Amino acid sequence: MKKLMENIYEAIGETPMLRLSRITNHYGVEGNIFAKLEYLNPGFSKKDRPALQMIEEAKASGELKTGQTVIELTSGNTGTGLSIVCQAKGHPFIACMSEGNSMERARMMRALGAEVIIVPQAKNSVKGQVSGEDLKLVEEMTVKLTKERNAFRADQFNLDSSYRAHLLHTAVEMLEQCDGKIDCFVDIVGSGGTFEGCAEKFKEYNKNIRCYIVEPANAAVYAGKNLINEGRHKVQGCGYAMDLSKVNKELIDGCIQVTDEEVTQMTRDLAKLEGTFVGFSSGANVCAAIQLLKDKEKGKNIVLTLNDSGLKYLSTDLF
Ligand SMILES: Cc1ncc(COP(=O)(O)O)c(C=O)c1O
């Protein structure tokens, strides 16, 4: 058990890992899915980890000054992590978020002391579905405010500290919790930080561990496919159909596509069968694992993360 803590951010990481045997039985596949329960972090998502790593490294290097404002664009999860870390370390925090993301995220960040700027979506966008175009608008606002407020940008898409959180911690914990018995890793990418950090560590441990990128079928750019329906999908926090600066393509052993319908069903199954109450992107990872266990990776051990809490989706049609 962790000792008595002085700061809430000390509770980030060292999350439990669960074998999803009820899901593999239900889908009639051979093999194991080992899921890291990242929604049990203090901000209810895996993005608490890069939030902490980015702030600690920037403070250590002197790039982030005492009391300086921090800013970042977020689908809500990195912003929640940053709200928690910045509050405890004495930095005002500004979160820039698309109005396409579910609003419980904005309310949560405000409750945690953040200033939240909601950026209107592009003309053709749909509420609950944040496209690459929407993200561009949020990026423009973030760049503008960074200058105006003389803020430090906790840039999850471009700082090495963002993926190092997973290289130094998430992947190391997974290897330990699975006694190193990992054959594959699947991950739906947003910034690509989790994929890059974990894939790099796994390949360093054993170059035969296969690492698969997961993408919404409508936005499968890593698989070399054209956008369908302008790349729209329901998987918030991921699938922006863009080239990710942090992802080393040499680490990718394959790409898997998942549809909104199968992701929604799987996320509901996770709650009902396993008692893991999580969001769309977690369901996407498990869908990808099931696809692999049915065919190419039959009988193997697949690791993945359950990324955030289902409580963040109560205003959507998920539950
Ligand atoms: C719910 C959710 N799932 C997945 C991701 C993607 O993680 P990464 O940025 O490490 O690729 C994010 C990123 O914000 C997220 O919020």
From TrEMBL:
<dbReference type="Pfam" id="PF00291">
    <property type="entry name" value="PALP"/>
</dbReference>
<dbReference type="GO" id="GO:1901605">
    <property type="term" value="P:alpha-amino acid metabolic process"/>
</dbReference>
<feature type="domain" description="Tryptophan synthase beta chain-like PALP">
    <location>
        <begin position="10"/>
        <end position="307"/>
    </location>
</feature>
<protein>
    <submittedName>
        <fullName>Cysteine synthase family protein</fullName>
    </submittedName>
</protein>
<dbReference type="InterPro" id="IPR050214">
    <property type="entry name" value="Cys_Synth/Cystath_Beta-Synth"/>
</dbReference>
<dbReference type="InterPro" id="IPR001926">
    <property type="entry name" value="TrpB-like_PALP"/>
</dbReference>
